Amino acid sequence: MSRVALERTYSRIAQLPLRIEEYELSGLELRVSDHFTRLSTVVRLYGAGHEGQGEDTSYASPDQTSFRADARRLPLAGDWTLDAFGRQVGTLDLFPRGASHADFRRFRRWAFESAALDLALRQAGLSLAVALGRVPRPVSYVVSPGPETSAASVAALHERYPGMRLKLMAAPAWDAGAMLGVAATGVIDVVDLKGQYDEDVPVAVRVDAALYERVLRAFPDAWVEDPGVTPETEPVLRPHWPRVTWDAPIRSVGDIARCAVRPRMLNMKPSRFGSLPAVLDAYDLCAEVGIGTYGGGQFELGPGRGQIQVLASLFHPDAPNDVAPTGFNESPIPTGLRASPLPVSTDEPGFRAP
């Protein structure tokens, strides 16, 4: 991919002064089912009378509990620029007991870097929109209801939240009739095939050419995310490359540049990139070469969800952003959640949304 030399978006915030005096960690949890309780950890940085927040969304519960119990004091205190602090965090071992998955190292680094951005902006009295010179807009979002979705459950949810759009996770048990029933609701924007994960990752879906063919036929207008590409699936996917989008394999500008076929759309999850320059450089590349982006969540329970909503408001407000309010993760889903498009308050200093 050829690139046009433009000012890096990151350069607008890299030299923000940052004072850190201390930090603390606090846990969040949500009982999702009898078999799964989601844990995350809020990173709080304090300095000059302000607080910055970020969220570690590593999925393994033992990684979260050991993080909170770690008695070490990381060398974070001092006067920094935002860029110097990020480079410092990059030198630290944030998983002294080892990470359950290599990706979690980036997730945790993002927790510290996003907290630092929040704090630096608050100390400077700036919102991220002002710092980057961008105009925020209300965020369109999709809801991800899980693989057990049926036409009846979609209809029931849509009755409670008219105008709602969905991102589905493909299920091997779906037959063509079930898919067509869901497709007939007309509210499906993205189907996630979960074919780019290691087999030991709980959300991974077996790569299956027959499943892919059923999905592609049933949802002809939807984006199709993360198919597994094999000699068996490639012929099925080839006619549909323009609507294939990627999530799990995209962790850097280099990953985007290495795509064998230039995608029209990518799922941007900042925690997959780990650092502020990596995230903003990826946005720059996509803008330069004409790749669309939409936001993706990591089952955030705290400030991390508001932060991805802020990024969506600045970079891709009209896309099928998987950044719905966290209440949609609860069972049953409560009433009164804010409808799409989501007004994101980005006028206040910092990198957070209510």
Written account of the structure:
There is one protein chain. This protein is 32% helix and 18% strand. It has two domains: 9-129, Enolase-like, domain 1; 136-329, Enolase-like C-terminal domain (TIM Barrel, Alpha-Beta Barrel), CATH 3.20.20.120. Residues 1-5 have low confidence and may be disordered. Helix 2 (82-91) runs antiparallel to helix 3 (103-124). It is built from twelve helices and twelve strands. It is of the alpha/beta class and 354 residues long. The strands form four sheets. It has a five-stranded parallel β-sheet with strand order 6-7-8-9-10, with no helix packed on it. The chain has a three-stranded antiparallel β-sheet with strand order 2-3-4, with helices on both faces. A two-stranded antiparallel sheet has the order 1-5. The radius of gyration is 20 Å and the shape is globular.
List the main descriptive attributes of the protein structure presented here.
354 residues, 32% helix, 12 helices, 2 domains, disordered N terminus, three-stranded antiparallel β-sheet, five-stranded parallel β-sheet, alpha/beta, Enolase-like, domain 1
